[in-house]
Amino acid sequence: METRAESHLKQEEEESGQKEQDNSPRTHKCSECGMGFRYPSHLSRHMRTQTGEKPYGCEKCDKSFSHLSHLKTHLRIHTGEKPYRCEMCSRQFSQQYSLNVHLRTHTVEKPYRCEECNRQFSDFKKHIRTHTGEKPYRCEECSRSFSTLSHLKIHMRTHTGEKPYRCEECNRQFTTSSSLKRHVVRSHKEQKPYFLKSAH
């Protein structure tokens, strides 16, 4: 049996598919800004941007979303699903946006200029947090927050004890590649160059 959420998503997808061909008038008006929409569901979705309502809650954590599609994308953090693959190096991503940002590492494209510091970036969202101080990624174990998901993942190793980087010379293991590099420089200077090796 189809759930209410699945039914709603199906309706959104059907209406999105009609969007290109449909030239019907935008009769459903927003009472706040006057914007018009062809479908009542599109108006309802827009109204949440005005009210801040977030009716779609994640059952795995305390995050809520204004759109069902945003919840669906968020759930990939919990399931580990990564449907977007880079054709150049086979890395996989949970969001199309993340893949697009990654692709710029192959082209060295930096299309975003920061007005605060005038530097250019391939991922402006991540950089702007250095100015705003925003830390949207919170550790569920100790409530510390981080500006990037990668920093949260590294931090989580302090709770799990995971040490994925191993020194090939002495077999000591480390939580980060930078810790391994530091160790090799200090303890095995004559063995350079060295290689990072996963402990798994």
Automatic annotation (TrEMBL):
<dbReference type="GO" id="GO:0000981">
    <property type="term" value="F:DNA-binding transcription factor activity, RNA polymerase II-specific"/>
</dbReference>
<dbReference type="InterPro" id="IPR050717">
    <property type="entry name" value="C2H2-ZF_Transcription_Reg"/>
</dbReference>
<keyword id="KW-0863">Zinc-finger</keyword>
<feature type="domain" description="C2H2-type">
    <location>
        <begin position="137"/>
        <end position="164"/>
    </location>
</feature>
<dbReference type="Pfam" id="PF00096">
    <property type="entry name" value="zf-C2H2"/>
</dbReference>
<keyword id="KW-0862">Zinc</keyword>
<comment type="similarity">
    <text>Belongs to the krueppel C2H2-type zinc-finger protein family.</text>
</comment>
<feature type="domain" description="C2H2-type">
    <location>
        <begin position="84"/>
        <end position="111"/>
    </location>
</feature>
<dbReference type="GO" id="GO:0005634">
    <property type="term" value="C:nucleus"/>
</dbReference>
<feature type="domain" description="C2H2-type">
    <location>
        <begin position="112"/>
        <end position="136"/>
    </location>
</feature>
<dbReference type="InterPro" id="IPR036236">
    <property type="entry name" value="Znf_C2H2_sf"/>
</dbReference>
<feature type="region of interest" description="Disordered">
    <location>
        <begin position="1"/>
        <end position="29"/>
    </location>
</feature>
<keyword id="KW-0804">Transcription</keyword>
<feature type="domain" description="C2H2-type">
    <location>
        <begin position="165"/>
        <end position="193"/>
    </location>
</feature>
<dbReference type="InterPro" id="IPR013087">
    <property type="entry name" value="Znf_C2H2_type"/>
</dbReference>
<keyword id="KW-0677">Repeat</keyword>
<protein>
    <submittedName>
        <fullName>Zinc finger protein 514-like</fullName>
    </submittedName>
</protein>
<keyword id="KW-0539">Nucleus</keyword>
<dbReference type="GO" id="GO:0008270">
    <property type="term" value="F:zinc ion binding"/>
</dbReference>
<keyword id="KW-0805">Transcription regulation</keyword>
<keyword id="KW-0238">DNA-binding</keyword>
<keyword id="KW-0479">Metal-binding</keyword>
<feature type="domain" description="C2H2-type">
    <location>
        <begin position="56"/>
        <end position="83"/>
    </location>
</feature>
<feature type="domain" description="C2H2-type">
    <location>
        <begin position="28"/>
        <end position="55"/>
    </location>
</feature>
<dbReference type="GO" id="GO:0000977">
    <property type="term" value="F:RNA polymerase II transcription regulatory region sequence-specific DNA binding"/>
</dbReference>
